[in-house]
Amino acid sequence: MKMKLFSYNLADTFIHRLSGLTKLICFLFLTFAVMYSYDIRVILVVMIFSFFLMRASKIQWSQIRLMVVYVAIFIATNAVISFFFSPEYGTQIYGTEHTFAEVFGISLTYEQLFYQVTKMFKYASVVPLGMIFLLTTNPSEFASSLSGIGINYKAAYAVSLTLRYFPDIQRDYTDIHLSQQARGLELSRKAKFFDRFKNSLLIVIPLIFSTLDRVEVISNAMDLRGFSKGKTRTWYTARKFTRQDIIALVVSALIFAGALSVSAFINHSRFYNPFI
Amino acid sequence: MDAQPIIEFSNFTFQYFSQAEPTLHDINLKIFPGQKILIVGPSGSGKSTLGHCLNGLIPFSYRGEITGSLKIKGEETATLDIFKLSKTIGTVLQDSDAQFVGLTVGEDIAFALENDCIANKEMHERVSNVAQMVDMESLLGSSPFELSGGQKQRTSLAGVMVDDVDILLFDEPLANLDPATGKTAIEIIDDIHKRSGKTVIIIEHRLEDVLHRDVDRVLVIDDGRIIADLDAHALVASPILKDTGIREPLYVTALKYAGVAVTEEMQAGHIETLRTEFSRDALQDWYGNLLPAEHLDARPSILAMEDISFSYDGLRPVLEDISFDIREGEMVSIVGKNGAGKSTLSKLLCGFEKEDKGHILYRGEDIKDKSIKERAEIIGLVMQNPNQMISKPMIYDEVALGLRLRDVPEEEIAPRVEKVLDICGLAPFIEWPISALSYGQKKRVTIASILVLDPRILILDEPTAGQDFRHYTEIMEFLVEINKLGVTVILITHDMHLMLEYTPRAIVLAGGRKIADTAASVVLTDAAVIQEANLKETSLFALSHMAGIEEGTQFVQGFIDYERRLKNR
After folding, report:
1. Mutation choice for B interface testing from A141, A176, A180, A220 by most B CBs within 10 A
2. How do residues A67-83 score in pLDDT, each as one tens digit?
C-alpha cells in the first residue's frame, strides 16, 4: 500500500536540481520581500515570477487543486473579515478618503479597496512559492535543509521520521478501525455525538499502545547506529552546491534587496501611495 | 585456542531496576574472533538481555545493576558508551520494518555514516559498496513500502556492515520472515561470515532453521544462566532441548518416534550431515507399522468462496478467481508469501472490503448484504498484535465490549463473559487489569473478546508469531480445544510447523491465485508449490529419502497422524 503525505513530484527540472537548502533560502528571501512590502508593483513582479516558476517546475494541477481550493477559501474569508473589523484601515494608511459607495452604513473607500487587493496579491504570490518548495524537494532533503539553516538536526530529522512512519501508523489506524467496527463499534452519523466521541477512544487507545511499541524499537535502532552522538551530522541526500544554486540565491537576494530599496528610496515607507 | 577472546563475560550478573530478581546470573563466557555462535533459549530466559548487554542498549536505554565484568576487544564495556560499542558490534534487530529509518534504501544504509559526519562523496561510495555485498545495489532508491521482508532485512544488514564492525549480532532474525526468505537469510549470514571472517552471534529460538548452515557453538540459556555450550550434534543428542522447551528439529523428533536413541556420532545437528546408517532400519520399521488415520469429510460446508476476484485500484488484481469450500469444524491454514493476498482474503470474508466478482457463501447463502457488524457474529477476526485490539484497561470490560456495543442487557452479558473466560482459561483473572498479563494471555483475551460474540468461524492472523515453543504449543492446543467445541478455525500463517502439525488442510496462495488446496503434508513436499509460495520443504521429506523410503509424502502424513495420536492420548 503506497500512500504519500504530500506527493513529491519526480520530474527533473532545474528547480528539482537545486539543493534543498538553496530552495529554502530563496523561498525565505522572496517571502520576506513580499511580506515586508505593501507596494503592489513589487508584489505583482514577485507574483508573476512565482507563477513562472510554478510553470517551470512542471507541477500538475491535480497535485495542487485541493490546496488551491483551501487557500482561496482562506483568502476570501480573510478579506471579508478584515473589511468588517477595520473598514477604515485603508484611509488611515494612505491619509486620504475617496468614498465611492456605502453598505450597511459603512463607507467603501478606494483606499480600503486598494489596500485589500494588495494584501490579496501578497498571498497569491507567496502560496505558489511554498507549494513549489514542498513539491519539488525530496522529504529527507527537506529535513537536511532545515538543519542547514540552523535548526537542530534532531528536530529536523523528526520531519523525515514522520514522513517515514506516517503510512505505517495510518495502516494501523485502518486495521484497528475495521476490527473495532467488527466488534460492533458505530462511528457513523447514526450514533449520538457523545457516543461517537466515546467510541473513537476505542480506536485511539489501541493505536497509542501499538505506536508506543514501535517507538521503542525505532529509538533503539537509531541509538544503535549512533544517532545524536555528535553536534552535527551529514545527509546522504544533500546535494552539492552548483553554479545554479548560486545564481538562484543571487536572483532571490536581488529581488529581496530590490523590494527593500523600493520601500526605502522611492516610497519612503512600506506602502505605495497612489492617492497623493 | 590461545587467541584473545573478542567477548569475555566474567561473573557477570544483571538485574533490571524494575525486576525483583537478576535476569542474568553469573555469566562466564568467552567468544573468540571469527566464531559463529548461536544463542537459544525460551522466552524470558534472558537471551535478549544478553544481546542488549553486548550492544550497549543495557545500560544505555534499559537501566539496571551490573556486577562482574564484560570485556569487548579487551575493553571493559562499563567504560564505553553505546556509540563506541556500535563501532565494534553491529546489531540487526528483529523487526526489520520498524528498524528501517530512512526514506529509501540508500538513506537507511547511510544512516550510521551520516551520524559520523562522513562527507557526502565518501558516503555514497561506501553505501554502494556495501549494497553490492548484500545484492541491493539496484534498489538504492526504493522506499520501504516497495520492498519485501527479505529485502528489508538485507538493508538492515548493510546498514550495520557499512561501519565495518568486528561483530555482527542478529536478534531473532527469522521472526518476521516467510520460510524461504528465512532460509536465504541464514545463507546470507553464513556467506558474510565466511567471506569477512567477522564474529557472528545469532539469537534465535527457531533452532532447525538456523542450523540450515553450520555454526561453531550453540549456547543454551535458561533462567538467566548458560546451561550448555556445545556443538549442534551434541545439542540434539542431549536432553537439553526437551528440558528447556526449545523445539528440536523435526527430523530428530521423527528419529525418536522411531525408537532411535540419537547420539553424537549420528551427526544429527544438521539434516545434511545426518548419518542414516544407524537409523535406516528403525525408520523403515516404524513407517511400515504406521496406521493410516481416518479422514472423514462428510461434514456440511460452512464457508465457501466462488470465483472471487478483487483489486484495490481496479487495475492490479490482488485476488483472482479464488474458490474454496471449508467444512464445518475444519481447521485450515492459508499460506503464501507477503503480498500473496492472504490478508485481503480475510478482509473480504469480514466484509471490510467488497469483492469485485464472485460470491461468498455462509452455509450456502450469499452474505453480500451483511454489514461488517453482522458478519462479525458469524466470522470473528483475531489480529496478529493483541495491542491493536485491546482498548479497555480491565479484562472483563474488554471481553464484554462487543456485547455492550450491541446493547445486550448487562445481566445477560455477565454469564456469557464468564463462560468464555472459563473456556479461555482466564477465569481466575476476571477482575484483573490487562496490563498485568503476559503476551500469551493478552492473546487469549483478544480471542475471548471475539469468541464472546459466538462466531461459528474464527480467523486468526499469525496467532503464534514471535512465540517460543512452549507458548506456541499452549496457544495452538487452546485453539484445538476451541475447534473441538465446533468452531471452524482458519489460520493465516507463515509457520510451517503450525500448518503441518495443526491443520490437516492448507490453502496456498501465490500472486493472488490459489495454487494448492490439499493436505499440509502434500504442500510441504511439492517442489513446485514450495517454490512459488516461498515455503520450505520439510526436513521430514529429506529424512524419508535418506532412509530409503520412497513415499515421502506419506511418510510426512504418517508422522503427523502419529504425533496427533500421541497428543490426544
Report:
1. A220
2. 889 889 999 999 889 88
Q: Are strands B167-171 and B505-510 parallel, antiparallel or unpaired?
A: unpaired
Rounded mean pLDDT, A216-220: 90
Neighbours of A95 (CB within 10 A): 11
Which chain B residues in 276-315 lie under 8 Å from chain A, judged by CB atoms? 312
Q: ipTM of the assembly?
A: 0.83
Q: Which residues of chain B have pLDDT under 50?
A: none
Give chain A's radius of gyration (CA, Å): 24
| pTM flag (> 0.80) | yes
- Alpha-carbon gap, residue A69 to A51, rounded angstroms: 17
Reported as a single tens digit per residue, the pLDDT across B470-499 is 888 888 998 999 999 999 999 999 888 899
Strands across the sheet containing B24-31: B24-31, B7-16, B64-72, B75-76
- The owner of cell 557477570 is B12
Quote the Cα angle for A126-A130-A132, to 5°: 115
Size of interface A-B (CB pairs under 8 A): 157
**Model confidence at A1, in pLDDT bands (50, 70, 90)?**
very low
Cβ-defined contact of B120 to A161 (cutoff 8 Å): no
Domains of chain B, each with CATH number or no CATH: 7-240 (3.40.50.300), 249-289+547-569 (no CATH), 301-546 (3.40.50.300)
- Nearest residue to B30 via CA among B2, B56, B60: B2
> With an 8 Å Cβ cutoff, is B376 touching chain A?
yes
CA distance B24 to B32: 21
List the domain boundaries for chain A.
Answer: 14-138+238-267, 152-224
Sheet with B317-327: strands ordered across: B317-327, B301-311, B357-362, B365-366
Closest A-chain CA to B109:
A236
- B405/A183 Cβ within 8 A: yes
Helix (H, G, I), strand (E, B) or coil at B219: strand
Of the candidates B124, B389, B453, which has its C-beta nearest A206's C-beta? Answer: B389
In the structure, what pLDDT confidence band is assigned to residue A6 with cuts at 50, 70 and 90?
A: very low
